[in-house]
């Protein structure tokens, strides 16, 4: 529906996506009732249900998309991926028994 007028997008979302989202919520609530609260699955479902307003916001606001692929592609063209955001610090030397900075090779030599 990208590129379509806002009224057409809203109508399509209400006709197609809203029932699917409602079914997903009821299914998640059913599964949550059957799964022990200690399982990771229960934790993931509780997380999803706590974020439900953010997930369903795009149903009411015609300007929003369900994903952010447009922004991701724009960043990819500029070379701003996750690997560029990682700060790589130089490896630190560890302190030895005497409090001096020793290379790993020196530490092996000091052991009796």
From TrEMBL:
Domain Transposase IS66 central: 6-74
Native species: Azospirillum rugosum
Pfam families per the UniProt record, alphabetical: DDE_Tnp_IS66
PANTHER family referenced in this protein's UniProt entry, alphabetically: BLL1576 PROTEIN
Official protein name in the record: Transposase IS66 central domain-containing protein
